[in-house]
Amino acid sequence: MTSSSSAEPTRRDFLFVATGAVGAVAGVAAAWPLISQMNPDASTIAAGAPIEVDLAPIASGQDIKVFWRGKPIYIMNRTKKQVDEARAVPVASLPDPQSDQARTKEGHEQWLVVVGICTHLGCIPIAHEGSYDGFFCPCHGSQYDSSGRIRQGPAPSNLPVPPYAFVSDTKIKIG
């Protein structure tokens, strides 16, 4: 009896390697959707992403409303009169004391950027309404001035200022 050890691959060796390769591909194919579903969905990424807004088309005394993270954001190009009136208000007389300078960016005082959600019950206030030429919430009568500060009504605090920065003189980035 002689036993010869052949260096040539047999059919069994081929089937063993082929089965292993198919098993590895099947494992990756099964794991891919499991791992992929852990990534955030595109709308979630977009909802938290910063937005850029061109301010050039907004004339003095006008405002626009944009949406960021599902919230309405008012961007108001205030007139010199509105800025002067907002700065003339004694801060100590306000229910939620905050100066106009703290709510705007230095060098861009005419631009007011606020989240347009009433701090009382979450209604959407109307711009350029009310006794203070700012925002008026028709639901329960809260009135905000041209700096977004609560002046009258049941709202407990000022309209919040979202995080924003000037990218150029005519463009801001919110978020």
Q: How would you explain this protein's 3D organization?
A:
This protein has two domains: 10-39; 45-174, Rieske [2Fe-2S] iron-sulphur domain (Rieske Iron-sulfur Protein). It has four helices and ten strands. It has helices at 11-36, 42-48, 80-88, 100-103; strands spanning 51-54, 63-68, 71-77, 111-115, 126-129, 134-136, 143-144, 150-152, 164-168, 171-174. The strands form three sheets. Strands 5-6-7-8 form a four-stranded antiparallel beta sheet, with no helix packed on it. A three-stranded antiparallel beta sheet has the order 1-10-9, with no helix packed on it.
Named at the architecture level, the CATH assignment of the largest domain is 3-layer Sandwich
SSE ordering: HHEEEHHEEEEEEE
Strand content: 15-25%
Integer count of domains: 2
- Low-pLDDT windows of residues: none
Structure summarized in a few sentences:
The chain is an alpha+beta fold and 175 residues long. It is built from four helices and ten strands.
Topology, element by element:
Layout: H1 11-36, H2 42-48, E1 51-54, E2 63-68, E3 71-77, H3 80-88, H4 100-103, E4 111-115, E5 126-129, E6 134-136, E7 143-144, E8 150-152, E9 164-168, E10 171-174
Antiparallel strand pairs: 1-10, 2-3, 3-4, 5-6, 6-7, 7-8, 9-10
Please give a handful of descriptors for the protein shown.
about 180 residues; alpha+beta; Rieske Iron-sulfur Protein; 2 domains; four-stranded antiparallel sheet; three-stranded antiparallel sheet; 10 strands; about 25% helix
